[in-house]
Amino acid sequence: MSVAQYYLLDTFARVPFKGNPTPVCLLTDELSTQTMFMLAEEFNAPVTAFVATASDELFKIRYFTGTGEIPACGHATLGAAHILLNQNPDFERIVFVTIEGVKIIANKERDLVYLVYPVYERKDYEIPGELLEALGVEQIASHFYCDELESLFIELKDDSAVRSIRPDFEKLRKSSDEVKEVVIMSESKSDDADFILRSFCPWIGIDEDPVTGSIHSVLGPYWKERTGKTELIAFQASKRSGEIFIQVTDNSVKIGGPSKILVDGTLDLS
Prior knowledge:
By secondary structure, the protein is an alpha+beta fold. Helices cover 20% and strands 41% of the residues. The protein has 2 domains: 2-114 and 257-268, Roll (Diaminopimelate Epimerase, Chain A, domain 1), CATH 3.10.310.10; 129-250, Diaminopimelate Epimerase, Chain A, domain 1.
């Protein structure tokens, strides 16, 4: 029984084996939550997106990791938007609705797909000593927390410090019940990017996220203040690596990137 069109993409990448490996299922039949979770386990990627058509340009989207459902995922939304906007070139934009009712607008600008996110607030946060110990970090330049994303952001003195981190993921997972993601960042030494980052999420079953999208709703405004730029390029210094293109306004952040489709097929559960 065919239940979906299945795609495997590398998001935030122009070539295979870079960026974030992203399964996307465009559903042609309704699937239970348990079935979607088992499929995400089967695909064994950081996040799998399941998309159902609500109306012509409105789509419901859900996200699953190997440990369960999560409320948001930028790179999986980017992959779904890349497929739908290329399948429907007459659409000026599409709108996704998440399980929490959040609406995410997507549009295409030249060869890049952009997602529109609200600007999320930053707040002060006392970092547990166990968390810093798990990261192997002793000195930080700045840090802050975002409630909406349950994410802790830590700026280090330079990009070599970011690249050299080797976390103890089991210790990191046990270091906090509040944090679900730690983002390590610094200003970039390269002219090709404004800042670099890495993202660690052992709390949701992803030790290191290859490339991360939604956190730039926080990072975009922060690095706009630091650099004075409204258009920024971020480089994610994971093993696979990827580039994120960011446009910042007063009320929103556009997060963009390319995607490469590797597999296009049918999902059969008969």
